[in-house]
Amino acid sequence: MHKRIWAAMACGFVAALAVPAIATAQTYPARPVRMIVPYAPGGVTDVYGRMTAHEMEKTLGHSIVVENRAGGGGALGTGLAAKAVPDGYTVVVASAGPLIILPTLQKDLSYDPYKELIPIGQVFDSTLLLSVRTDSKIGTLRELVEAAKARPGKLTYSHPGTGSQTQLYVELFKSVAGIDLTSVPYKGELPAFTDFIAGRIDVTTGSYGTVLPYVKNGTVKVLAQFGDTRSPVLPDVPTAKEAGFPGAAAGAWLGMNAPTGTPAAAIGKLSEALVSAMKNREIREKLNETAYTAVGSTPEAYGEFLKAEQAKWVPLLRKLDLKME
């Protein structure tokens, strides 16, 4: 008799636990969702984060309030999201910097992305370009490798700061190609590119938006794209993989995460909204114009993607032993 009573009570307890989850699934969201963008207004993360938020609102049936919380290379806003109440009403637009690079290089971060954030989905994927000036004798990626091997450490490359994804792309390529290029850090992509154009730097990386105007006016020659496939913006420029360096393939990306403990029902609704947003033709065309590719993956696929990114970059970061400025 006692066993039957305990069994009945246990069943009732389990059923009671399930009620909040069911209620969440049926009523979420009941108010606006806060989307933290951990960078200043006007940048790529902010622009595409807001565009995505606007389209997600159509599926959610509630507004998404975008909040810019810049600082610490993305650490400030990401940390705020990680510490937020995990009720489904706070998400953060995430990238490799605050999710992978900073946690590896800085031991005093206020958050642990591996424990305090969970995936919602990947927003887009992109890549960077490796370029020389048109007056350079180097015309292909192979020729750059030959020149670097002939003069180890003599050729320079600029990038927008120690630990930036831009620097890591080149360092990954250096490791794969077995060459030595001297790193010259700047405070931002524009000054790094300006000195390159002025002839003070031999090689540089840069986003499509920065590089394309100079390609069109004949100042810059792009040697390779670091992505897995060629961009339709520069269909004649080979990828590093096509040039014989498959291990150097890497891409920039943007994702969306929530605090650990966020109800599965809320994650499901947010994921559904994100996937739907990335299928929007206008968004896809807008992204393609600037050489970004809409993704809109599930939480599971995005989680696997993050594991692969960690496996690629963390060993390299530890090997380089970079010191953040």
Give a quick set of tags describing it.
325 residues; alpha/beta; D-Maltodextrin-Binding Protein, domain 2; 2 domains; 12 helices; 18% strand
Order of helix and strand elements from N to C terminus? HEHEHEHHEEHEHEHEHEEHHEH
**Order of strands in the sheet with most strands:** 2-1-3-10-4-11
For the biggest sheet, the summary is:
6 strands, mixed
**What is the name of the CATH topology of the largest domain?**
D-Maltodextrin-Binding Protein, domain 2
User: Which structural category do the helix and sheet elements fall into?
Assistant: alpha/beta
Q: Please state the second-level CATH architecture of the largest domain.
A: 3-Layer(aba) Sandwich
Overall CATH class of the largest domain:
Alpha Beta
Number of strands: 11
How much strand?
Answer: 15-25%
Cα shape: globular
Low-confidence stretches: 1-19
Q: Output mean pLDDT.
A: 89
Plain-language structure description:
The chain has 325 residues and is an alpha/beta fold. It has two domains: 33-125 and 251-320, Bordetella uptake gene, domain 1 (D-Maltodextrin-Binding Protein, domain 2); 129-248, D-Maltodextrin-Binding Protein, domain 2 (3-Layer(aba) Sandwich), CATH 3.40.190. It has twelve helices and eleven strands. α2 links the parallel β1 (33-37) and β2.
